[in-house]
Amino acid sequence: MIYSAAKANAGWALGFRNIFKPRDIFLHDGKSLRRFTIGAKVQMAAVFAAFVLLAWSAFATFQAIAAMNGDVARMQAQMVQMEADVAAMRAQTLNHAASLERRQEFLTRMLSGEATSEQLAAVLPTAETGPHNSLTQAYAEIDGMQDELAARAQGMTVARYRQTAHQLRRLGLNPSELIRAQGAVGGPYEEVQGGNADPRFAELFASWRRMEQLEQAVIAIPSARPIESSVNFTSGFGVRSDPFRGRAAMHGGIDLAGPMGTPIYATADGIVGRAEWNSGGYGNLVEINHGQGIQTRYGHLSRYIVSAGQRVRRGQLIGHMGSTGRSTGSHLHYEVRIDGRAVNPVPFMQSSDTLLALQRRVAGNPVVQPVSIGGPNGGSR
């Protein structure tokens, strides 16, 4: 074994010496002959130098290739980032365009006057996040026009609310209480869009909703005459001399005298609470609840043609004039009550054209009987 290894090593050494053995080089310039001898060490040094040069060249080549690959990778990363940025801008632009369409739909529906609060809530624009990019700036003019239209709509809504509230205060009604009562009937308002609504349009929607609630409450206000024909105003609201006892007593309504059987009409939409004989002096009595704590009473009827629980419309026939109960002659005792307290009915019968027009719009009833006052006679309690 040892002999074989030694023999192999000797063979490698012999081969190595044969490769790098001294070599003679002859140069002849035509006149003389020169001889050069290159020794084994010189040959080995040259081979080593060539090897180092080759290794360095390979290393430099690999470095250049690696650098080139790095630049390509960076360029590819930049391209990917640019594509992502473009896609993000495109998505943001499409979202902004969709938001503009939603805002336009909201404004169109609201200004049409035909949409319900639920329909408007369903298209209430959501707030946009992040700054606009160069592409969305192309919509700046449309955005500005919508903002201006929303501001004008807000101003009109607030003005309409104030006008209606003014008419109600003239009747001694508190608009805020009517809105609260309207909310109690219709259910509480729940914030839409999870609180993510566009603040500008959320404010507009809140103002519109408040106005809608007030206008819906207006429909409950008695504003028509209970009698269409000419009658006599015989007794007003307040303290008077009782026709039976001759002493001062509070009269909670007004008396409108006319022929027996004169038609009596509901002065506002509502639900009949009572249609019965009343032993407290009203005789045949119809009592209608109009919501928001408002109630009307029609007493001394010869007969009534509605029943408790029945829904009636403004101007609907509910009975006929008579002299039943505590009465001295054919007349209608008419009352308006708010939260159970009797108030003077005359201002309600003298409601302005603005209030009547508002009731026509809300109720969708184009026929409104003219409002005027007559004069009656007779006592009632």
What does this structure look like?
The structure is a single chain. By secondary structure, the protein is α+β, with helices and mostly antiparallel strands. Among the domains are: 90 residues; 132 residues, Glucose Permease (Domain IIA), CATH 2.70.70.10. The chain has 8 helices and 14 strands. Strands 3, 6, 7, 8, 9, 10, 11, 12, 13 and 14 form a 10-stranded antiparallel β-sheet that branches. The C terminus is likely disordered.
CATH class of the domain at 232-363: Mainly Beta
At the fourth CATH level, what is the homologous superfamily of the domain at 232-363? Glucose Permease (Domain IIA)
Strand content: 15-25%
Order of helix and strand elements from N to C terminus: HEEHHHHHEEEEEEEEEEEEHH
Distance between the termini: 142 Å
Gross morphology: rod-shaped
CATH architecture annotation of the domain at 232-363: Distorted Sandwich
How many strand elements?
14
Helix content: 40-55%
Largest sheet: 10 strands, antiparallel
Any idea of the CATH topology of the domain at 232-363?
Glucose Permease (Domain IIA)
Cα Rg: 50 Å
Features:
single chain, 381 residues, alpha+beta, Glucose Permease (Domain IIA), 10-stranded antiparallel beta sheet, two-stranded antiparallel ribbon, 46% helix
SSE blueprint and pairings:
Layout: H1 2-19, E1 23-28, E2 33-38, H2 40-112, H3 117-122, H4 140-170, H5 175-186, H6 199-218, E3 232-235, E4 238-241, E5 248-251, E6 254-257, E7 263-265, E8 270-278, E9 283-291, E10 294-304, E11 311-312, E12 317-321, E13 331-338, E14 341-343, H7 346-349, H8 353-363
Antiparallel strand pairs: 1-2, 3-6, 4-5, 6-13, 7-12, 8-9, 8-11, 9-10, 10-12, 10-13, 13-14
